[in-house]
Design brief:
This protein is an all-beta fold and 254 residues long. The protein is built from no helices and 14 strands.
């Protein structure tokens, strides 16, 4: 059959799933006289009928521990009654980056909260506990949340061919997630922040997410795909307890 007589391709199977993007704020006690304003950004999806799970990133936005941030996985259980929502959840991840931090690398954050929705937006209040099991931090405090609920598209990367893309801009973007490990070699006798000059190499490990900016259209025999990259890593060396890094970037894949 000649190519011109070929039937048009059907639209790709693109599905949607509910998602929630949440912002949380709280004031954490990190010592007898020290405190830290902690802000969290959470990307959550439903798990089953009443569970939820996703990824969270925390950063210090005020107080005595500037430079701290943490990241990891969040999950929990929720009950809904009309516009009201009650939930219990737990964050498990790593944190560090502050030169005067007194906690270890492992960070736990259980919480209880209630919220009220107005359309796609909701406001919530609750109690949370920030706990570093191998450090000196175990703080319980109130927290507030602001959340937006909507839908995300999932389907074949790039969606339908251009000749059949008449059903709307519902293209799914290619996403890759990978784990990595590495090692930083210290230059010469450069001192550490604590003044020591016998600093060993720093081993680290973490996760990286790379996501396409668009569907990656091809032009002629070549194609190029722009993407953004976000990676988070923590120290695996005992000499650098609490080390953490968060990196972002953009690139082009040929």
């Amino acid at each position: 059959m000649p190519l011109a007589d070929a039937p048009p391709l059907p639209p790709p199977m693109v599905q949607t799933t509910p998602v929630e993007i949440r912002l949380s704020v709280e004031q954490v006690s990190v010592g007898h006289t020290a405190s830290m304003g902690l802000t969290g950004l959470h990307y959550l999806r439903p798990v089953g009928s009443q569970g939820f799970g996703g990824v969270s990133v925390f950063g210090a936005t005020q107080g005595d521990r500037g430079g701290f941030f943490g990241w990891g996985l969040s999950g929990g259980y929720r009950l809904r009654d009309g516009p009201w929502l009650a939930e219990a959840g737990l964050f498990v991840g790593g944190g560090g980056g502050s030169p005067s931090w007194v906690g270890g690398g492992l960070m736990l954050r259980p919480h209880l909260a209630a919220s009220h929705a107005w359309g796609p937006l909701s406001l919530g209040l609750g109690l949370s506990q920030v706990w570093f099991p191998n450090g000196q931090v175990r703080s319980t405090q109130p927290h507030a949340t602001l959340a937006w609920a909507g839908e995300a598209w999932f389907g074949p990367a790039g969606g339908a061919p251009a000749s059949t893309r008449t059903w709307g801009d519902g293209r799914a973007l290619a996403t890759e997630t990978s784990a990595f490990v590495g090692q930083y070699a210290m230059r010469g006798h450069s001192p550490r922040r604590d003044g020591r000059r016998d600093a060993p190499d720093l081993r680290f490990g973490g996760l990286a997410v790379r996501r396409a900016w668009s569907g990656g259209e091809s032009t002629g025999a070549t194609s190029a795909q722009a993407y953004w990259l976000l990676s988070a890593a923590g120290g695996l060396s005992h000499a650098y307890t609490g080390y953490a890094e968060l990196l972002g970037g953009v690139g082009m894949l040929y």
